[in-house]
Amino acid sequence: RYVDADDSFRAQIKALFAMIDRDNDLTLDAEEFGKFLSKKGVDIPANLEEQFVKYDTNGNGTIDDDELAGVVKGLGLSQIVPSPEEAALYMVRVLTPSQLGSAAAVVGAMH
Question: What is the pTM of this model?
Answer without folding.
Answer: 0.78
